[in-house]
Amino acid sequence: MPKKRSGGGLSPTQQAAKFLGVSVLAGAVLAGIALPAVGALGLAAKGSVESFDELPANLKTPPLSQRTTILDSEGGQIATVYSRDRTVVDLKNVSPYMQKAIVAIEDSRFYEHGAVDLKGVLRALNKNVQNSGVSQGASTLTQQLVKNVAVEEAGDDPTKVAQATQQTIGRKIKELKYAIQLEEELTKKKILENYLNITFFGQQAYGVEAASQRYFSTHAKSLTLPQAALLAGIVQSPSRYDPVNDEAEATKRRNTVLKRMAEVGDISEAQAATAQKAPLGLKVKKPKNGCITAVKGASFFCKYVERVFLSDPVFGKTKEERAKVWNQGGLTIRTTLDPQSQKSVQDSLKDHVYKSDKVAAAATLVEPGTGKILGMGQSKPYGYGKNETEYNYSVNSSMGGSNFGFPTGSTFKPFVAAAALEEGRPANQQYSSPYEMKYPSPVQTCDSKAWVNTNGESLENESASEKGPYQLQKAMELSVNTYFVQMISDIGLCPVVKMTDALHVVQGNGDKLPEVPAIALGSKGISPLTMATAYAAFASRGMYCTPIAIESITQKVGDQQKSLQVPKSTCSRAMSEKTADTVNTLLSGVVDSGTGKQAGLSGRDNAGKTGTTDSRKNAWFVGYTPNLSGAVWVGSATQKVEMTNIWIGGRYHGEVYGGDTPGPIWRDAMTGALEGKDPTPFNKVFIPKPPEKDRGDNDGRGNGNGNGGNDGDNGDDGGFLSGLLTNGGNTNGGANRGNGNGGFFQGQSNGNDNSGGRG
C-alpha cells in the first residue's frame, strides 16, 4: 500500500505519479484531449498550468547552437569560438552502435511506443510509490528531447535553465504535449537524430559529434561498440560518469550499457563480454574555445572580429539580437587577415620587443583602397597571466582597446600638411621656424571663437641648432615643431579638423580631436588602426576607406547553409590626388634622408613619419607603400614608462625614437608582408628646392668639432645618426638631446589642452 503523509492523503510526488499514470491509462494524453486542471490536485502553486488544452499548440524548437569557425583570407583556420561546442550531423553519420546504445540504455522501447511509454510509466509509478519518492523516471527519448530543447532555448540564463529543468507537474504536462506533437510530426529516426545532436555529454561537448571528438578524437560515424556504450552511459549523469575524472565509475556505467544492449538483443552476450573487457581507450582532446586559442598570434584580431559582429547593426538591430546570433553560432567567418602579412607582423614584433619588456608594441597593416585589415598583432600575448593582456592596443576602446589610444607625436604632422595643401599653400611653403616660440595667438577655429594663448605657452624644437627658416619638405624630414605650429596659425584649425574628419581620425575613446594648436604635435591618443587607415588614404591618392575585417559569413541552421550580410568598406575622397601625391613625396623624403631613415624599405617606393611623445612615453612609425599601410606603436600601456636607458628586445636604448625602435619593426613587418609582390611607384610631384645657402652644422656634415649629424638627427627622432656623420672632434652630434639641453615641448596639460608630444 502506498504510504500516506502524516496529514492524510498521498504525497505530492505520489499524487503526480498517480495523475500521470491514470491519465495515460485513460488514453487522454495519447489522444491529445483535455486533462483535468492540475489545480484540482492542489498542485498549482508548484508551477503547474491551467489545463492541457491551453498550452501552445507547437513546440518552438530553436536552432541548435554550434561552434563558429573564424578563417583567414585564404581559408586557414584562425580559431573556433562557441557558446556550446556542437557540430550537428545527420543520423547516417552516427555509428549504428551509438544509435543502438543510446536507445537501449535510455528508452529501449523507443521504436514501439508513442510519445509516452505506457509500460514505462506504470513501472516507474510502481517503483516510486514503493520507495515513497522518485527513484525511477519514465521519460521517453522524445520527452527528453523536449526538455533539452527547453534548456537550449534558455541558453546561459540560469533562471531560465532552472525553469526548463524544474521538477513540477506543470513542466511535465508541457513536456507530454510537446512530445505528442513531435511524435506526430517527425519520424523515429529524426527524433533520435535530434536527440543525439542536442544532448550534453560532459566536458563542454554538446551532441554526439563533439563528444566523439572530445573523448576519442574521432567522428561519430567511426565509434566502436565500447566507445558508443561509454558515450551513451555518460548522458544520464555527465559529471558522475565523466571518464576523464573517474575512469572506474565510467567503466562500470559503460558495462551496464553493454549488458542492456545484450538484453534487448542489439548485440550478443559474447560481444558484450568482449567489449566489457576492453580498456576505455580515451584519446582526449582538450576543449579549445575562444580567441585565446587563435593561431599565428591572431587572438587580438579574432577578438576584433567578435567585437565587430556584436556592434555592427548589419548583424542585428539591437545588441541582444546580435548576441543571440553570435551565441547561436554555426558561423563560418572568412576574414581579411592575410596569413603572410600576419606572420610577418608577429615575427617582427617578436624579434624587436620581448613580451617581458617594460614596454609593449602593437602593429597593424591595412590595404589602401579597400580598408582590409591584413595584419594585427602585439608583443604581449592575449591572456590573463603575467606579461599578457586582454587589451588590444591597436584599436579604439569600444573595440577592446585602451581607454584613450596613445599620443602620436609627430606622426600627426602629415595631416596638418595635407590640410594646408588643400587650402592652396604651396609644397615649398616656408616659415621662420625659430628654435623656440610662443604659440601664435589668436588662431581661428571652426566656429567664431578663436583659440587664444591666454597662459603664454611656448614650444621648442628638438635641438637648439634646429632653427629656420624652413620649407615644408625639410621641415617634414626633420620634424620641426615650430614650423607646423606656424602652419596651423596660418591656415587656422578648421582645415585641420576637416582633414582629420575626412580621414576618420578620432581619439581612442571615440571623441573628436580638440581644436588647439598643440594638435600639430600629436598630443592626443589615437589607435594604430586609425593611424594606419588614415595614412592608407595618402597611399591610395586621397581615397579614404573605412577598415573592414570580415569578407563573408555563412551560417548553418539545421541542414541549411545561408549567407549573412557583412559590413562593407565605405570609400570617400578625403583630399585631392595632387595633395596626396605631394604628401607622398614629402614623406618619401622622411625615409630617404630624414628621421625615418632606419625604417626605409629597399627596392620599392615607401613613405612614412616618425613620432616620439613627451618624456618618450610613446614612439611611433606610420608608413606605407602604394599597396600597404602600417602603423607601429611602442610604449607603456599605462603611460608610466619613460623610454630612456631601457632595454627593449634585448637591445639597450639610451633614448628611444620613432626611427630606431618602431621604425625597424615597421620595416621588417612590411618587408615580409610584401615579399613576392611587385613594387608599385608613387605618383611623385616636383617640389622646388630652397636656394642654396650655408646652414652651418644643420646639413649633417659636421664642422670638425663634433656638432654635426643634425640632418635626420634632430626633430623628434633620428637618434641613430648621433655622432656618426661628424668629422672628428668630440663626436657630440645629436648626443645632447634628452640631457636638459635638447629642448622639446613639454605639455602643460592646462585648460587649453596644450599637452603635446615631442616635435
Description of the molecule:
This protein is α+β, with helices and mostly antiparallel strands and 759 residues long. Helices cover 34% and strands 12% of the residues. The protein has 22 helices and 20 strands. The strands form seven sheets. A five-stranded mixed beta sheet has the order 2-1-3-13-14, with helices on one face. The chain has a five-stranded antiparallel beta sheet with strand order 5-4-18-17-16. It has a two-stranded antiparallel sheet with strand order 6-11. Helix 5 runs antiparallel to helix 6 (158-165), helix 16 runs parallel beside helix 18 and helix 16 (413-422) packs across helix 19.
Features:
alpha+beta, five-stranded antiparallel beta sheet, 22 helices, 20 strands, elongated, disordered N terminus
Question: Summarize this, please?
Answer:
With 759 residues, this protein is α+β, with helices and mostly antiparallel strands.
